[in-house]
Design goal:
With 138 residues, this protein is mainly α. Helix content is 52%, strand content 12%.
Length: 138
């Protein structure tokens, strides 16, 4: 599946729900699907700065693609990071770095989060971009 197809799949998934309460439940369900994150990787250098909740993000480059692993101590935030890594994990670093992440606005996520969670979302996106750019230079 291409990156555009994956983003479209997310947009369509969110469009199934009319109420934001249902969309939050969907996010929480996404968070439950995150792979277990090893406790020993919950280190300061993997912590995303700017999030009200604690969010850890780890990455590795395998066979030319960037893979992400994440966790959070808050259920909605866990769902948000799960959504992001579900779209971008397994993609070439250059493709991730060049993406505009506009699907996040298309599903209305930024507009329906508290200001602190919206800042956290922006920090997650920025960190994913930074990681992708750093691998893209190698």
């Amino acid at each position: 599946m291409t990156l555009e197809e994956k983003k479209q799949e997310i947009i369509e998934g969110f469009s199934l729900y009319e109420e934001w309460l249902d969309k939050y439940e969907y996010l929480i369900e996404l968070g439950k699907n995150l792979a277990p994150f090893p406790e020993e990787k919950k280190t300061e250098d993997r912590l995303i700065k700017g999030c009200q909740s604690r969010v850890w993000l780890d990455s590795e480059l395998r066979d030319g693609s960037l893979y992400f692993m994440a966790d959070s101590d808050a259920v909605i935030t866990r769902g948000i990071i799960s959504l992001l890594i579900g779209v971008y994990s397994g993609r070439p670093a250059q493709e991730i770095a060049a993406d505009d992440f506009a699907f996040v606005s298309e599903i209305g996520l930024k507009d329906n989060l508290s200001p602190t969670r919206a800042n956290g979302l922006a920090s997650m996106i920025e960190r994913i971009r930074e990681i992708a750019k750093s691998y893209g230079r190698e």
